[in-house]
């Protein structure tokens, strides 16, 4: 007798599609601005430090993205995770299309910030819905399979950016060729968002989209005003693009402090949990690495190997494409390790260490100059495979440790803190490229941060046997035993 197809696997497929299009939308900026720098067109023509400015544009997207991480998870706990996922996808689709229509640097930055604000609500609700709907013994596999969409999306944006730009040149002319990728991928995101909404409607009719959207718009309006105010003040004061990015991180840290002050009673299981915070801080390095290579890999390959834009994009895709193998494999190995009593932590530490070593080797290859593109491809693929494999394992550790009632807030806080790396990485790396004339220094900085993440993961106390550690259960245990220890 054939076993019925479980509903949670269908959920995985739809969430994977959501990850694919949203990741393509956010990863697209890197190849596009690289093409603009090489061809001296658009708002990057004639700029004194084009890599720093392009990095700032990428960083400001993530400034918006990070500011809705925690509110998005909080609203998901309040209105339902499915509700926020649909709003996030449709919002991102519309904003990405607008990115390809507007003209001028400031307007482009503002629309990319708005895009980030919408996409920022996806992660915490996607992770929470998987944890809620998937059997615990397959939780890490589910997170790995679904987040494979991140690798697919980045690969699509990296590999096909030259083709989409070429089509844009045929339709709009050379100066406006960069618009076409945003129009194509924005439309694809809208289609997926509508499909996901239809699927969720069959599962749970009458989702409160209106109320949730109004609440999310309120948070996003404040976030947009804050991000753009920091940009305008920094620009007026003559600060460098790097320092403006640093100020944006300060804005995010201010949000964390605000959350601690206002929600510490309600969300104490998330905000005061030592092990959750260790994972969260480690994810600064994780997100730094992810968006350093996702944003700049085409330029790194082109500089180190002297290859064309199209060929560099193809080689750089080995970094993104490794996630297609790494994400599901890491998730599967994590669940196997839990069933055998090994736990998730040893795999997280081992994979992150291997990635760090391979990144150092890649840095020496870049520093040597005249690099062989296939050696670079092999190193990018190998390091990225271990990097992508550790992510669903670490996310499953977080789900095991956090109170299930606060999964949305826990994942939101995780990505809010982690996105500090995503905001700084493109800008800092671009500034280092302008200052040194090469990419090796930026690669070694990335490797050092990953080494720091290894140390933080070593300090995490994993939930025994992969079991969840709800705060309520531990409070009851302490009341019975008189212990004063915390979860």
TrEMBL record:
It comes from the Bacteria. It is found in: Cell membrane. Its main location: membrane. The chain crosses the membrane at residues 50-67, 79-98, 144-165, 177-200, 212-234, 240-261, 281-302, 314-334, 346-367, 373-390, 411-432, 438-460. Residues 11-464 form the Major facilitator superfamily (MFS) profile domain. Keywords: Membrane, Transmembrane, Transmembrane helix. InterPro entries: MFS, MFS_dom, MFS_Na/Anion_cotransporter, MFS_trans_sf, Sugar_transporter_CS. Pfam families: MFS_1 (PF07690). It is a multi-pass membrane protein. This is MFS transporter. It comes from Solirubrobacter deserti. The lineage of its organism: Bacteria, Bacillati, Actinomycetota, Thermoleophilia, Solirubrobacterales.
């Amino acid at each position: 007798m054939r076993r019925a197809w479980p509903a949670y696997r269908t959920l995985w497929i739809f969430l994977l599609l959501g990850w694919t299009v949203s990741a393509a939308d956010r990863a697209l900026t890197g190849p596009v601005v690289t093409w603009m720098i090489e061809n001296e067109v658009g708002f990057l023509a004639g700029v004194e430090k084009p890599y720093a400015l392009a990095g700032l544009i990428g960083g400001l997207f993530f400034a918006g993205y990070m500011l809705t991480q925690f509110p998005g998870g909080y609203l998901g706990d309040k209105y339902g995770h499915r509700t926020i996922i649909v709003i996030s996808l449709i919002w991102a689709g519309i904003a990405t299309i607008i990115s390809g229509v507007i003209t001028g640097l400031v307007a482009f930055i503002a629309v990319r910030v708005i895009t980030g604000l919408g996409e920022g609500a996806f992660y915490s609700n996607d992770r929470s819905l998987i944890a809620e709907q998937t059997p615990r013994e397959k939780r890490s596999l589910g997170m790995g399979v679904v987040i494979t969409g991140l690798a697919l999306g980045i690969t699509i944006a990296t590999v096909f950016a030259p083709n989409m730009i070429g089509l844009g040149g045929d339709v709009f002319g050379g100066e406006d060729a960069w618009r076409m990728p945003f129009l194509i991928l924005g439309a694809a995101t809208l289609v997926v968002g509508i499909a996901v909404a239809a699927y969720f409607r069959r599962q749970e009719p009458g989702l409160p989209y209106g109320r949730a959207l109004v609440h999310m718009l309120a948070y996003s309006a404040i976030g947009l005003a804050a991000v753009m105010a920091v940009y305008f003040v920094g620009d007026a004061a003559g600060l460098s693009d790097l320092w403006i990015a640093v100020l944006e991180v300060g804005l995010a840290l201010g949000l964390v402090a605000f959350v601690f002050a206002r929600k510490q009673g309600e969300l104490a299981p998330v905000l005061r949990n030592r092990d959750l915070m260790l994972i969260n801080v480690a994810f600064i390095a994780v997100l730094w690495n992810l968006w350093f290579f996702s944003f700049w890999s085409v330029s790194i390959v082109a500089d180190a190997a002297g290859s064309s834009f199209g060929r560099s994009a193809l080689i750089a895709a080995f970094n993104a494409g490794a996630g297609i193998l790494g994400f599901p494999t890491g998730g599967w190995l994590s669940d196997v390790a839990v069933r055998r009593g090994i736990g998730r932590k040893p795999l997280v530490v081992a994979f992150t260490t291997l990635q760090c070593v391979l990144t150092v080797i890649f840095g020496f290859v870049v520093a040597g100059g005249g690099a062989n593109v296939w050696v670079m491809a092999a190193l990018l693929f190998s390091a990225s495979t271990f990097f992508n494999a550790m992510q669903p394992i670490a996310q499953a550790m977080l789900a095991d440790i956090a109170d299930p009632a606060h999964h949305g807030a826990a994942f939101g806080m995780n990505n809010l803190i982690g996105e500090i790396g995503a905001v700084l990485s493109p800008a800092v790396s671009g500034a280092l490229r302008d200052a040194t004339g090469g990419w090796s220094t930026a690669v070694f900085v990335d490797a050092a941060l990953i080494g720091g993440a290894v140390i933080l993961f070593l300090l995490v106390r994993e939930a025994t046997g992969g079991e969840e550690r709800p705060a309520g259960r531990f409070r009851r245990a302490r009341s019975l035993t008189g212990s004063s220890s915390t979860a």
